[in-house]
Each structure stands twice: as C-alpha cells, then as structure tokens.
Amino acid sequence: MTSPRTAFLTAPLLMGGYGVLRIIDGLDGSRGPGPAWTAGHLCFLGGIAFFVRGFGLMRAWAGRNRLATVGLWTGTAGAVAVAVQFLIDLAVGFVSADHGAMQELFARIQAIPGVLPAFYDVGPLLFFVGQLILVAQLAVRRILKPWAPVLVLIDTTLPFADKDLIPLGAALLLVSFAPLYRRRPATHPPLGTSLAA
Q: Which residue windows are transmembrane per the record (predicted)?
C-alpha cells in the first residue's frame, strides 16, 4: 500500500497531466469530445481525490485546530463541487458527437437553477480557499516554507489568467508540497485518524 504522503506528489502531477492534455486537446481549435478530453478529465478527477486525501493529513499536521478543520471541510466541499463539474464534462463528452453538440448540452445543463453557482462559479472556489488555509497553517508551524502559501496562491490565480498555465501551477504545487511528501512516516498520523475530531 502506498504511503498517504504520496498524495502530495501524485495530486500535482495529475493536475499537471490534465493541463498538458488540455493543451493537446485544443491544438485543433476546439476542445472535446475525444480521447484527450476524456483522459485529461480523468487525470483531474484523480488529482482531486489525492488532494482530499492530503487535506486530511494537512489538518492533522496543523494540530487539528478549528481553523485547520475549517480548511479541511471547505477544501473538501470545493473538491466535491469540482468533481461534479468534471463528471458533467465527461458525461457530455461521451454522449456528444462533436464540439457543437457539447456546447448545446452544456448550455442546457448550466441553465438548470443552481448548477452554475454550485458547480462552476462559487462551489469550486472553496477547494482553493480550503487548500490555502491548510497550507498557511502548515507554514505558520514551519512544516512548510514561508513562501509556500504564496506559490499556492499563484497556482490558484494562474488559470484565471490563462488555463494553458495549469501545468506551471502544478509545478509550483510540487515545489510547495516538497516538505510534505518528503516528511518521515513517523511524523504522520495513522490513516484512520486523519479526519478524526
């Protein structure tokens, strides 16, 4: 069984993989449907799962205090929202014959009341807020470098400037999380206790 610490290596790598596949998918002038669309979204979903696994450890290393707990559950709620968005993307890609059909189906889905704020506009932002809270807590405890929250914040803002910068953001996360995936096994809690109160 792999160490839970590998989440801090695997999650950014999968996010970076999504970013690269997204660029490849857009080389023909449109994104989806097709193998690159599907593979990229599966990478992203895998990355989200590993991030949530890592959030539990980050909370434990931060001392399981109130703010770390808020960070954990805020980040997890955002991860669920992002996962739903990407599952919608996958489903739309599977049932659509071409990019135009995808756009029509996306428009119908996003017109459903509550879908846009919950899974596209507001909900996913909670993932980044929770992650930043946890990283800041670990920086205060000197488990992460003082500049780690800055790199995580840059990673968060890069996709808003240009989504083609997602691989760069993933590289910043790898640098930020290096002390976590190098952390000695004796310093992390048992698997069953990472989400305990």
A: 7-24, 36-55, 67-88
| Residue linked to tokens 């029509």 | 104
**Is cis: bond before 149, omega within 30 of 0?**
no
H helix runs in the chain, sequence order = 7-25, 35-61, 66-95, 99-110, 115-116, 125-140, 148-161, 166-181
Would you give per-residue pLDDT tens digits along the chain (197 residues)?
A: 457 789 999 999 999 999 999 999 999 888 889 999 999 999 999 999 999 999 999 999 999 999 999 999 999 999 999 999 999 999 999 999 999 999 999 999 999 999 999 999 999 999 999 999 999 999 999 999 999 999 999 999 999 999 999 999 999 999 999 999 887 654 444 434 443 33
Measured CA to CA, the distance from residue 144 to residue 58 in angstroms comes to 10
pTM: 0.88
In sign, the C-alpha dihedral spanning 77, 78, 82, 85 is positive
Measured in whole angstroms, the distance separating CA 34 from the mean position of its chain's CA atoms is: 22
Domain boundaries, the chain: 4-184
Q: Are 172 and 151 in contact (CB under 8 A)?
A: yes
Structure tokens at 163: 């989504």
